[in-house]
Amino acid sequence: MIRNTLSNVQDTGNFLTRIHRSYLVNINYIKQINGNSQKSTLSLDYLEEQLPVSKSQYKNIKNTLSSRHKT
């Protein structure tokens, strides 16, 4: 069990990104982002469930995905 804030956990690894106030994900497992900035969800390789993406994090996730596909 980890007893820490998500911000502190996120700072421990540069492979983690915040997609919502309650969610951190490993950017290497992001499959795609669905929807627009008003209502979007994220698909991960290992999870059938769709995770919500907050309006404030939408642009950051889109930039992360586009930069990952360029390399």
Question: What does the model show?
Answer:
The protein starts with 5 loop residues before the first helix and ends with a helix. β4 (39-44) and β5 (47-53) form a beta hairpin. It is 32% helix and 41% strand. The chain has helices at 6-12, 55-70; strands at residues 16-20, 23-26, 30-36, 39-44, 47-53.
Keywords:
2 helices, 71 residues, globular, 32% helix, 41% strand, 5 strands, three-stranded antiparallel β-sheet, single chain, alpha+beta, two-stranded antiparallel ribbon
Radius of gyration from the CA trace? Answer: 12 Å
Biggest sheet details: 3 strands, antiparallel
Secondary-structure element pattern, one letter each: HEEEEEH
General shape: globular
The helicity comes to 25-40%
Structural class: alpha+beta
Low-confidence stretches: none
What is the residue-mean pLDDT, rounded to a whole number? 87
Report the end-to-end length measured between terminal Cα atoms. 35 Å
**DSSP strand (E) fraction?**
35-45%
Strand count: 5
Spatial strand sequence of the major β-sheet: 3-4-5
Number of helices: 2
Summarize the structure.
The chain contains two helices and five strands, in the order H-E-E-E-E-E-H. It has helices spanning 6-12, 55-70, and strands spanning 16-20, 23-26, 30-36, 39-44, 47-53.
